[in-house]
Task: structure prediction
Amino acid sequence: MEIQLQNLTKKFPNRNRKHPGDVTAVNEFNFTIPDGQLIGLLGPSGCGKSTTLNLICGLEKPTSGKIFFGGEDVTGVEPEHRGVGMVFQNYALYPHLTVRKNIMFPLENLKGKDRLSKEEMEKRVLDAAKMVSLEELLDRKPRELSGGQQQRVAIARALVKMPRVLLLDEPLSNLDARLRLQTREEIRRIQRETKITTIFVTHDQEEALSISDLIVVMKEGILQQIGKPQEVYDQPANLFVAKFLGTPPINVFSGKVTDGQVKIGEETVLLADLPDQEVTVGIRPEGFVVDEDGTFSCALKGIEVLGRDISIVASHPAAENASIRAIVGSTRLNQDMAQAVFFSLKTDKVFLFDAKDGSRIETVLKRPAGKRS
Ligand SMILES: Nc1ncnc2c1ncn2[C@@H]1O[C@H](COP(=O)(O)OP(=O)(O)OP(=O)(O)O)[C@@H](O)[C@H]1O
Result:
């Protein structure tokens, strides 16, 4: 089921007397989620992720704007008639009921013409349990399950009504690191098998990048970028998106363009055909190449061997953070440890942003001649 959000806005009254005025949790959202995809909705705490989900499932009514499911306007449709399954972070299971009864619960509450026969309910429960590989555990109580298994019961309970859309609000945040990894693979598998359009909310960028077909990055209620994970990583729309995606994070420097030279401090690190201006330069950790002929020098602070790669910690006076981090292949670092390390830069791993508003300046970057030439 394709989901389309059209000028979707949600304002809440602000209870803060010192700063009165509405809080705009979701601000003029316009985007379409294609049928059958897994979407990662990503952004820092308070950016409006949960509100977006609540609007899609109907628990909140928009202040303005519309929601369409497969072309049908569902903005005024009650939550129970939208065909949406939802799994929350606190997926409260009923402790006194078996897994079977927990999964069956939403079906037992169907009313009128939606009511199902006992046999139909049993069949649906078994189908949902199979989808999440729980069919062996149907007679257990929740306390006899691991955290990951409990989470799968919550997903089965959302799937049993055969929803058109599945919404998962931080479904992994109560699980430990190993289970998180396992359960997110499981969610990916279930989504591929059921082909239900699924929106997955997380503030963990790595989680979103690893399992989503598309990611939607939000900040303060405003959509920043929507795209395939790799596209958004490789072509961030602005400094916020560039900083939000990637571990270790992108290194940020204040710089300038003078006579077609991109300068950080007094060093020309790249060339760009742009008018003179102040810029913010973002360099991904993998964008550095240790190069004795390189024009960008940083003070070396330390080296960590990461197995295949080497992580170099260095500092530069124009860097936003005290230390910068470069990930390089296992090159010989035959430079004096206590001294400067010289880098050249990979042009596709460097981005220029407007120094004032952080928007990306699209341009072709070129490497300058080495310092010895
Ligand atoms: N019922 C409400 N009344 C007033 N303000 C609200 C209400 N619900 C959310 N907000 C505000 O709207 C903004 C977005 O909240 P929301 O819960 O959607 O963010 P979020 O991205 O899901 O955050 P988190 O990751 O912390 O769950 C926040 O500023 C929040 O304080």
In short: Residues 3 and 69 are 5 Å apart (CA to CA). The two ends are 59 Å apart (CA to CA). The mean pLDDT is 90. Residues 12, 23, 25, 43, 45-51, 203 surround adenosine-5'-triphosphate (CB under 6 Å).
